[in-house]
Design goal:
The protein contains 18 helices and 9 strands. The chain is α/β, with parallel strands linked by helices.
């Protein structure tokens, strides 16, 4: 799997090593580590520590965001294997995902979440018999009301205590909300010992703040999110994603001038940040500067020719300006990328309007307010 030129994001933090070391390893292989998910993201890594602080709903939202951006989701162990920092699991492996799900009775969605957090010894197909044993234990606990985050925490606790002995080696039992090991009549924690944490470096602190800011943003607590993102900017002033996320929150607070400042900062750090160009265009359009909006949208299209939204909005601006030839070309390009969505249908409607406006004299018509509203969504 090619890494050269690939943009990575790490959701949460890794158990294996700090973020700064992950950035170094990725850079050594020709890739780059970013903070936020964007259209450039090729790999989204679910760090094992994400399960410590984030809610299940938040994790689901981040998984969905990564998928919508077109990123490939990797578990932490799969990430290490991609970088060739750890070996493939050993032992006989001949079971498919379908076989594991059917023979264990584990829900497919739960299985996928457990797999993404390395709750199985094999990260991907084919799976081994020990993975089936673990899946059956997880299925039993899930049927007893244990959610997948608690199952992941149990697997992680066991892995921390005994890296060579997975969940298949022990018998699991539920005690309230906890998942414990059972030996005869005795219940004990899966870790079996206290674990002393080392002090976090600045990179880890920045990661934690970024995750807290994301949580606040998802809860629409704009003031807290802005304050946390500002602290992230202080720790990592050269991270374009942090500046971009802060600009989004500032826009939600109505602070468009400050938002524009941080969008420009993101673009100084990364001139190919298509989403930042797109948001600058939105600010310019909203404040009565369509020519600046057009320039920014052209920059977004240059940065990412496969990004459909700037094509549509630039077509709409050209349509409003009466340049139907340019609008037509742009809407046609948009429909090549997104023909079937509601916006694809609006682009088709725009092309039909242009045909009526520029056609034979008997077919000409004026653009009504209703037409304009329909095109603008």
């Amino acid at each position: 799997m090619a890494i050269d030129g690939a943009a990575f994001v790490i959701l949460g933090a890794l158990d294996a090593f700090p973020r700064r070391l992950a950035a170094r390893e990725i850079k050594a292989r020709g890739g780059e580590l970013r903070h936020g998910v964007s259209r450039r993201t090729r790999f989204a890594v679910l760090g094992h520590k994400l399960i410590d602080g984030a809610s299940a709903a938040s994790i689901e939202a981040r998984i969905e965001e990564s998928r919508k951006a077109g990123a490939r989701l990797l578990s932490e162990n799969a990430f290490l294997r991609l970088l060739k920092l750890t070996e493939e699991p050993k032992g006989q492996r001949e079971l498919s995902t379908r076989q594991i799900v059917e023979q264990s009775g584990l829900d497919r969605n739960t299985f996928e979440r457990l797999r993404l957090f390395d709750a199985f010894e094999s990260g991907d197909e084919p799976f081994g018999f020990r993975d089936l044993v673990a899946a059956r234990q997880y299925a039993k606990l899930a049927a007893d009301g244990v959610g997948w985050p608690d199952l992941v925490r149990a697997a992680r606790s066991r892995r921390s205590a005994n890296p060579l002995g997975g969940v298949a080696n022990v018998r699991l039992a539920r005690a309230g909300k906890a998942v414990l090991m059972q030996s005869g009549e005795t219940l004990s924690e899966l870790s079996g010992q206290l674990v002393f944490s080392l002090p976090a470096d600045e990179g880890d602190r920045g990661d934690r703040l970024f995750e807290e800011a994301r949580e606040a943003e998802e809860a629409e607590d704009w003031a807290r999110a802005a304050a946390l993102y500002r602290r992230c900017v202080e720790i990592e002033p050269k991270d374009a994603d942090v500046a971009f996320n802060l600009s989004h929150v500032l826009l939600k607070q109505g602070e468009w001038q400050e938002a524009r400042r941080f969008l420009n900062k993101a673009l100084r750090l990364d001139p190919t940040y298509a989403e930042a160009w797109y948001n600058l265009a939105a600010i310019a359009r909203e404040h009565g500067d369509p020519e600046s909006a057009k320039r920014h949208l052209r920059q977004a299209i240059t940065a990412d020719p496969g990004y459909p939204d700037p094509l549509y909005n630039l077509a709409l601006l050209e349509f409003d300006a009466g340049d139907y030839e340019k609008a037509s070309r742009l809407w046609e390009r948009y429909r090549e990328l997104d023909p079937d969505s509601s916006w694809g249908q609006k682009a088709k409607y725009g092309l039909q309007l242009i045909g009526m406006i520029t056609g034979r004299p008997g077919a000409q018509r004026e653009v009504s307010v209703a037409d304009r509203r329909h095109l603008a969504g």
